[in-house]
Amino acid sequence: MVLNYIWIAFFLVAFVVAAVRTVAFGDTEVFNSIVSSTFVSAESAFKLSIGLTGVLTLWMGIMRVGECGGVVNALARVLSPVFSRLFPGLPKGHPVNGSIFMNLSANMLGLDNAATPLGLKAMRELQELNGGSERASDAMVMFLVLNTSGLTIIPISIMMYRSQLGAAQPTDVFVPILIATFVSTLAGLVAVCAWQKINLFNRTLLTFLVVVTLVVAGIIRLFAGMDRAAMDTWSTLVANVFLFTVITVFIIAAVVKKVNVYEAFIEGAKDGFGTAVRIIPYLVAILVAVGVFRASGAMDWLIDGIGALVRACGLDDGFVPALPTALMKPLSGSGARGLMVDAMETYGADSFVGRLVSVMQGSTDTTFYILAVYFGSVGVRQTRHALPCGLIADFAGLTAAIVVSYMFFG
Which site among 62, 189, 288, 325 is 20 to 30 Å from 392 CA-CA? Predict the structure, then answer.
């Protein structure tokens, strides 16, 4: 229901802004741009879905091998004490706990191509426990918000873009990104727990949060002492070793249990192809709405208004040029990435704005995209408090990105 209102609002606001630009400023091309954006965005959404097909097919097949080999069930049992409190509606030891863990691990290591199919797999299992209802369960909301908060320990792609755009030290944003994304995840977790009345001061959960905080602090200290070459080498190595180790362990476990690995893979891969086809309409819907909003000039007007307000309050407006990336991030990952690159090309990769947009890009994930794809893949239409909690995580992460960037680079 919330997505319905937001989707309508994008089009109505775009129409009003375009009408004002046409009548008041004589801009006769704005409506042409809007209509063109609908075709371009629809084509992009379709290509994105098709591009996901191969990855979804691969990882759905791998996950099926892991299930047959018993690895996913083993992970579920290990994580049961923590997950039974974060997801109180889930049966203890259910395989979905393992799927959730695999998805979150892939996200933390920056393995986007692997994280999405693992997340869709987990969401499908959650929907089975939800009885196929069109209304999201508490567990589905918690899982989605943990995804949208985007906890990323190794932001490989952002450091790669900075290197390509001539940054003297592409890895200098690593620590600020880790701090900002941790704030985002913590804010999203607290928001959902408050909404669902989950006791965060439970000894098990509190211990878990303390351990995670110490691990993040340890990673910050470890990588902060490395030079650019060492950080690039080790971050890439850790991510790739993790990825291939998962595949190898799944296959070995299946062989030990005398599973026909090839047939198990094919069985899971078929589900991956079907999932890729199901998400196409949802991707088209959200990306076309975002494209129309941008093409109308509504985004530019919003940024200019915020800049004027900041200056009127006598505050430093040095962060304002980075706001297009911040506002686009919850709407479109590719759009935010493009704006990040544009800002670095315009202001310089080592400028304050260039560094800030990098931290913003890594601080959180694409809420509307994840909401559309994850819930759309299982037919959930009533998203409940997933969107507001996801946006709380986004706001916390992006605010932290600005504050931390001023601390490190201001």
Answer: 288
Are 149 and 370 a contacting pair, CB within 8 Å?
no
How many other CB atoms sit within 10 Å of the CB of residue 168? 10
Please indicate whether residue 231 or residue 265 has the higher confidence score (pLDDT): 265
pTM of the full structure = 0.77
Residue of 368, 360, 357 lying closest to 391 (CA atoms):
368
Q: Which pLDDT score is estimated for 213?
A: 84
pLDDT at 136: 93
Give the closest residue to 331 by CA, choosing from 377, 354, 299: 299
Q: Residue 124 has which token pair?
A: 């499908």
Q: Is the pLDDT of residue 138 over 90?
A: yes
Q: What single letter denotes the amino acid at residue 225?
A: G
CA distance 20 to 345: 31
Q: What is the dihedral of CA 91, 97, 98, 103, to 10 degrees?
A: 160
Answer yes or no: are the C-beta atoms of 98 and 76 closer than 8 Å: yes
Query: Of the ranges 191-195, 223-227, 354-358, which one carries the lowest mean pLDDT score?
Result: 223-227
Tokens describing residue 121: 């797999």
Is the pLDDT at 32 greater than 70? The verdict is yes
Burial 16-37 (b: 16+ CB within 10 A, else e): ebbeebeeeeeeeebbebbeeb
